[in-house]
Amino acid sequence: MTQPGAVSSPGRAEKEGPDWMTGAAIYHVYVRSFQDTTGSGEGDLRGVIERLPHIVALGADAIWLSPFFVSPMADSGYDIADHCDVDPHYGTLNDFDALVSAAHGAGLKVIIDLVFSHTSDRHPWFRESSQDRENPKADWYVWADPKPDGTPPNNWLSVFGGPAWSWDRVREQYYLHDFLPSQPSLDFANPELRRALLDIASFWVARGVDCFRLDTMNSYFHDADLRDNPPRDDEEAGRRPAANPFHQQLHLYDRAQRGDIAPLQAFVSAIEILGAATIVGEIGNRLKRTEGPIPLRCHTYLLPDAPLEAEAMGETLAAAWNRSPDGRVCWALSNHDTPRHASRLRTAADGRATALQAAALLACLPGAVVVYQGEELGLEEADVPGDQVRDPLGLRLGPAIRGRDGCRTPMVWDDALPNCGFTTGEPWLSVAEAHRNRCAARQASERGSILSAYRELLALRKRLAPLRIGDFHPVDLAEGVLAFTRSDGIEMVLVALNLSDLDVSFDLGGSMSAGAALVHGEASVGEGRLTLAAGSYAVLAGSR
Ligand code: BGC
Questions:
Q1: Averaged pLDDT for residues 21-36
Q2: Cβ-based neighbour number of residue 140 at 10 Å
Q3: What is the dihedral of CA 299, 304, 308, 312, to 10 degrees?
Q4: Which of 275, 320, 498, 540 has its CA 20 to 30 A from that of 532?
Q5: What are residue 523's phi and psi, to 5 degrees?
Q6: CA nearest neighbour of 137 among 197, 201, 205
Q7: How far is the CA of 502 from the centre of ligand 1 (A)?
C-alpha cells in the first residue's frame, strides 16, 4: 500500500498572476433549459440573472453560458447567424450586459462558448462566400470541386449522419459541413477569417466576458489535400453504435491536423492578450492519437471517458493530469452532449450513490471543475419519448440513437409550480417526470440531499487550498477504492471513494491522523484508521 504521506513533489503555486481559473468551480448553464422569464417555453438571459443566487449558494466561481447568439436554432444555437448579438429567444445585448454586471457583482466570472468551427448557412459570411468563387470571403469556408464522376470530393461523413459535403448550386461546388448541412465548416487556415474571429472575441471582452470556451476545436482544420479517411480497424470500432456510420471511420484527415497547433496557439495567445482566458473543448480524440504533454498552453476541457470504477477512473485521471504540466485542465463529468453521469456512470443500485460519489470526485479534482446544471440535484438522464425528440442527432439518426435531449430537459426548481418553475408557458422540451422529486427548493432545505453535498464539497474546495492548487497523486489504499492525495507543499488532503460493494478499513499513516474534513455515508476515522462502508467517501485534511 502506498502511504499518503509518501507524496513528495511540490504543489503548484496559488493562482499565478491573473489566472483565476486555477482550481475554479464553473457552473455550466444550458440557457435554453435553465429559466424562462417570458413564458416562451425557452430559458433566457434574464432567467440566468434570476437564478444567480442558486449558483452562488452552490459555491461556484464562474458561470459558463451555452450559446445565446442569433441562430435559426437548427442545432440548439450552435448554428450561429450573428456572433455579436443575442437571439431574441434569449433576450437582448442589454440583458447580456445586465447579466455580466449581476454575475460580477455576485463574484462570478463569465465564460461564453465561441463556436468557431462552423456557422449557420444564414450567416452573412456564408451568404457572401457562396455567391461566387471570387468574392472577398470566397475562401472563408471549405469549398471543393466534385470528383470527375460528380460525387463529393472525398468520403468524409457528418457527425449528424450522411456525407459531410453538400452541393451549392450557385457556386457549383461542394461545401464541407462536419455537422448539419445548414452548418457549413469555416476554414480556420484562412488568416483573414482568424482576424474576423478575433474581432468577435474582442467584442465580447469589451462587454466584460472573462473567458471563452472554444467549442469543437478539433474541427477547425482539415487536410488540405482532402484525403479519404480510412475505415476504423481498432478494437473500439465494434463498440461504437453502427447506427452512426461516422464512427466507422478513422478521422485522420477531416479534423485535428498536425500543423494546426501553431496557429491555434497563436489564436489562444491573442485572446489572452485581449484579457480573457481560454478553454479548448473536445480535444479528446487528438489526445488519444498523440503522446506527451497536451500541446496547447490554455485550459483543456476534458470529460473522462472511464467508468466510475477505481482502477479505470484512477488511471484515466492520472494519465490526463500527467500530460498537463501547467495544470490547466478543466474537468466535467456531464454536459449538454453526453448522457447525465448519474445514469452513465451508475455503479450502485440507485443513481443517488453514484451522484454523490461523482460529486466528491469532481469537487476534489485538480485544475478547474465544471458542474453541469442539474447534476447538483442528482438528475439522471431523462427518458425523452421518440415523438418528442428535438435534437438533430436523434432526428436524423434515430431511433437507435435517441440524441442528446435526455440531458437537456428543463431545470427543476420547485415542484409546487407549473413545469417545476422553469416556465409558465409550454416548455420547448418537457420537464422529466422522474426529476420532479429532485427540485432545488426541496433539496435546499434537506440535510443529506445531493444539493447539500455539492454545497459542502464546493465549500470545502474553497476552504482547503490543496484542493484548488495542490498536486494530484493516486494512492493505492484497497481494491475498489479510488483514492488520491492533493498537496500544496504545506497541507495534504486525502480523498477516498469506496466504489466497491464491500466495506473497507485501512491504516492512514501518521500524517493523515489530523482529522476528518468531510465524510459521507458510513465512513469514520479513528485511531489512525479510516473505515469506509460500500458507497461512502471521505475527504481528509492533514499536514505533511
Ligand atoms: C456542441 C454540440 C453541437 C456541435 C455542432 C458541439 O461541440 O457542444 O452541442 O451539436 O458542436 O454544432
A1: 97
A2: 22
A3: -110
A4: 320
A5: -125, 145
A6: 197
A7: 40
